[in-house]
């Protein structure tokens, strides 16, 4: 976010900035979502909804799981949230007590670590590398629990993952879910990049484990970042617990965003067109980044990120990011946020932007590195 703020300042000052720093889709929300929001604004009767969202949107999401994953889901198990960020807050508050150990992959999304630390949880970061197919495994969880000297109370896994792009295969996801269930470990599945899988198996943990907590969002595939709308699927016994916390923290998700989100669920033809544009950007980066000396550090199977090794040029990814922005007006994210131990040698490039911007950014970086 610091890099993004500096990029915004430079753009406002007239510099030709290309941002590859955040997971911000270049495309607008689907046309159906925009039209539904316009109609709602015309009558203007927008207010509080139930704390966990409107029944209409919950039913639409349940229908989505039926059509996409073959899961018959009770809509009452769906909780609408103010973005996936609110979902993570609710999950950590509802499932854990201060001092509990919760495992996440390293590298991983930094907000996991930061939110849990703020809540007094013990964050157990487990290296995910080529030996583990860049994901968590029962064996890595077992080793981590032994090193922590305390049992794990929770495991959080993202697939597709940020920043690595890892898609955890169904068999590996099943092994993790089975391990957690056998030890009464809460399993949280971050599925916010579902719909943006380019290689591998995109599996919802709900196809495997009915007792897991799923967090998803309209921000990425549905191109609705600024609408701040997401959802969770909860075990039936946990719904009331989450509802009571949500009532106190958020009152309710914004009704306008819920109306737009329901319409967006039917816009797959338009959204899959956007996905094809990301796939073309992905192909460009897969080719160009290694050519200019930035080797791919992990799979680019899903989401819209390239996580690259910059150790050929720097041992300080933050300084590298600042200099790249200052000298060629290309913004990217230092790896240090995602990996406090090894991230000084890595960078994350988002390819969610327009095709022309992505090509121009690669050209600028190539000339700069020479």
Number of strands: 13
Proportion of helical residues: 40-55%
Distance between the termini: 28 Å
Question: What structural class do the secondary elements suggest?
Answer: alpha/beta
* Number of domains as seen in the coordinates: 2
Brief characterization of the structure:
By secondary structure, the chain is of the alpha/beta class.
What does this structure look like?
- The chain has 2 domains: 1-23 and 269-369, Aspartate Aminotransferase, domain 1 (Alpha-Beta Complex), CATH 3.90.1150; 32-265, Type I PLP-dependent aspartate aminotransferase-like (Major domain) (Aspartate Aminotransferase, domain 2, 3-Layer(aba) Sandwich).
- The protein is built from 12 helices and 13 strands.
- It has helices spanning 2-12, 31-43, 55-69, 83-95, 110-118, 138-148, 170-182, 239-250, 255-264, 268-291, 317-328, 355-369; strands spanning 18-19, 78-81, 101-106, 122-127, 152-158, 186-190, 213-217, 230-233, 295-296, 305-309, 330-331, 333-334, 346-350.
- The strands form 3 sheets. It has a 7-stranded mixed beta sheet, sandwiched between helices. A 4-stranded antiparallel beta sheet has the order 9-10-13-12, covered by helices on one side. A two-stranded parallel ribbon has the order 1-11.
- Helix 5 (110-118) links the parallel strand 3 (101-106) and strand 4 (122-127).
- It is globular.
């Amino acid at each position: 976010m610091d890099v993004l703020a500096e990029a915004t300042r430079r753009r406002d000052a007239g510099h030709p900035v290309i941002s590859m720093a955040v997971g911000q889709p270049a495309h607008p929300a689907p046309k159906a979502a925009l039209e539904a929001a316009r109609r709602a604004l015309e009558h203007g009767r927008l207010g509080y909804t139930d704390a966990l969202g409107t029944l209409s949107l919950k039913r639409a999401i349940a229908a989505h799981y039926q059509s996409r994953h073959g899961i018959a889901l009770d809509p009452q198990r769906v909780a609408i949230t103010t973005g996936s960020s609110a979902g993570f807050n609710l999950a950590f508050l509802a499932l854990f007590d201060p001092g509990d150990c919760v495992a996440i992959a390293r590298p991983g999304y930094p907000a996991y670590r930061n939110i849990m630390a703020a809540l007094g949880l013990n964050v157990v970061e487990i290296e995910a590398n080529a030996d583990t197919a860049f994901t968590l495994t029962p064996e890595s969880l077992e080793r981590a629990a032994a090193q922590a000297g305390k049992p794990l109370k929770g495991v959080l896994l993202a697939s597709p993952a940020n920043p690595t792009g890892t898609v955890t295969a169904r068999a590996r996801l099943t092994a993790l879910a089975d391990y957690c269930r056998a030890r009464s470990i809460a399993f949280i599945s971050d599925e916010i990049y579902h719909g943006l899988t380019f290689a591998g198996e995109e599996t919802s943990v709900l196809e495997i484990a009915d007792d897991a907590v799923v967090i998803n969002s309209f921000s990425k595939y549905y191109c609705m970042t600024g609408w701040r709308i997401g959802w969770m699927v909860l075990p039936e016994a946990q719904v009331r617990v989450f509802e009571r916390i949500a009532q106190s923290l958020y009152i309710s998700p914004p009704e306008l965003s819920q109306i737009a989100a329901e319409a967006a669920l039917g816009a797959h033809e338009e959204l899959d067109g956007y996905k094809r544009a990301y796939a073309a950007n992905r192909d460009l980066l897969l080719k160009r980044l290694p050519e200019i000396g930035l080797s791919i550090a992990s799979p680019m199977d899903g989401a819209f990120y390239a996580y690259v090794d910059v150790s050929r040029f720097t041992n300080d990814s933050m300084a590298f990011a600042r200099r790249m922005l200052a000298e060629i007006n290309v913004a990217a994210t230092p790896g240090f946020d995602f990996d406090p131990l090894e991230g000084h040698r890595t960078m994350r490039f988002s390819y969610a932007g327009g095709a022309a911007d992505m090509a121009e950014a690669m050209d600028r970086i190539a000339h700069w590195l020479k």
